[in-house]
TrEMBL record:
Residues 1-20 form the signal peptide. It comes from the Eukaryota. One of its GO terms (cellular component) is extracellular region. This is Beta-microseminoprotein. Keywords: Disulfide bond, Secreted, Signal. The keyword Lyase does not apply. It is found in: Secreted. Gene3D superfamilies: 2.20.25.590, Complement Module, domain 1. The keyword Hydrolase does not apply. InterPro entries: PSP94.
């Protein structure tokens, strides 16, 4: 039973992360062609190896040797009536809602989602 539970948990984890959209920023060598000792974002923000943070609805991690991996922290709804409904992204909560075009107060159902 433990083995079944472990396998089910692993499958759920893999499905969740396989739906995420990710980007990887490669480290830049310094003037002496050495790898960096920290990660640096494009805006100059510095992170130590192993640091994790969320920015603009992306979950990011500073990895050795200075690369940054960022993945979406939200899922995009799929499988809804696009003639009657529209998806709207809320930047504050990093979530989508699907609502009726002619009555935005009423939500629509969807059958799947992807990242």
């Amino acid at each position: 039973m433990k083995m079944f539970f472990s396998c089910a948990l692993l499958c759920a984890f893999l499905v969740a992360y396989s739906n995420a959209s990710c980007s990887i920023t490669q480290p830049k060598l310094d003037l002496n062609l050495r790898l960096p000792k920290v990660c640096k974002e494009e805006d100059g923000t510095v992170h130590n190896f192993g640091d994790k943070w969320t920015k603009d609805c992306f979950k990011c991690e500073c990895e050795k040797p200075g690369g940054i991996t960022c993945c979406t922290s939200y899922l995009e709804p799929r499988g809804y009536d696009t003639q009657l409904c529209e998806k709207v992204f809320d930047k504050q909560s990093c979530t989508y809602i699907v609502r009726k075009k002619n009555n935005p107060a009423e939500t629509c159902t969807f059958t799947s989602s992807s990242g």
